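Re-run with default settings, no changes from the original entry. Doing this only to confirm the output is reproducible before filing.
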Amino acid sequence: MIRQFGECLRGALILPKDEDYDEARKVYNACHDRRPAMIVQAADVADVMTAVTFAREHELPLAVRGGGHSVPGFGTCDDGLVLSLERMRGIRVDPERHSVRAEGGSTWADLNHATAAFGMATTGGIVSTTGIAGLTLGGGLGYLARSCGLACDNLLSADVVTAEGCFLTCSESRHEDLFWAIRGGGGNFGVVTSFEYRLHAVADILGGPTFYPLDADVIRGYRTLIAEAPEELGAILGITLGPTLPFLPETWHGRPVVVVLTCWSGPRGEDEAIRERLGRLGPVLGQYVQRMPYPVINTLFDELLPAGLYHYWKGCFTKHLSEEAIDVHVDYGARVPCIQSATLLFPIDGACQRVAPDATAFAYRDASFATVLGPSWPDPDDSERNIDWGRAYYQALRPYSEEGGYVNFMSGDDDDRVRANYRQNYDRLIKLKTRYDPANLFRLNQNIAPSSGDMA
């Protein structure tokens, strides 16, 4: 049976007895050391359809892996089938339509490289090795979100293999309900084998980090900056330990700091005004804010966050960055347990808020910030300390946050928050899940369970 299955594939079927099995089963987060029964490295859509059908017919757990960055480890499983899209990374830019189509195994490094040649970009992540698939299906935060919207807001169409093994192309005019669901609904509805995005004229940007002491006034200044700055200013606030960078004085290495990660995609003539705004936030400890090609800004975390670290995240949405929340950030920021750990506040105002809350599955269009509490550490012996810090930090923020959070920032123990994460859109998502995946084949995710009744 397995031999016949392998003969139906153009890509690779890797089994536990194979020499490359241990390498093939690795994922980004070292917390998840799982042993699937088989790994399919799909070469094309036909392989995806074959693998989905095989998993369904043999009642195997099915883990779908794009870039493999899922912090809860949803891209792998024990004793099931891992469907990896890592070989499916073809990209085609259409400069006349200002669009790009990319296969589901592509990373943001792949996509940014392809589109930069045409002086264009779309909203993507902040680590270049992240896959486009998981980020987009969860909504898609990034430096360009304030001016261009979320990644899912820029999705023009998508090719999806459903639980029945059928191939569908969905858009605003074809299978509109499925298109609505995959824009924020995660991997609940099928395997997306390609994404078509709208592109924007973004070439060189003014970007890089500015470091400040950990101080409530700096965070207040950042809050004002986001409220007043043009939407072309992407500025993510981080709370972390000072890294060993040449432009940050050695006395601040390993000490709690605030960092503002800037991506100004507006006119070059306003660069100095942006630098002046950053200088007014507080005492500048170190700064590297320069003109650079847009793809470079997405690589700044790559060296600090390589594959193989241990990660545990918590996320929440915030309408207003209150004084009480700022106090919590300062308190827990003073006790960051590891230099790889960081709290990040992503602004999601501007273009993100001009999309109606029921226009896509991404529900929190009234939030101003998406916060991730991101403990990351290299030594497994430090797991308890880092996880405890993240959980306590999250509990301290809860009174000043919305009930739900961004699904891509949820951990594996956040399954009780799924309804809150989708808020007013949750019941519609259940109906669509029941229609497209009634047996819940695609359940290794922040799962939207199908109804046991007839809701299709």
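Residues 383-397 form the longest helix (15 residues). The chain has 14 helices and 21 strands.
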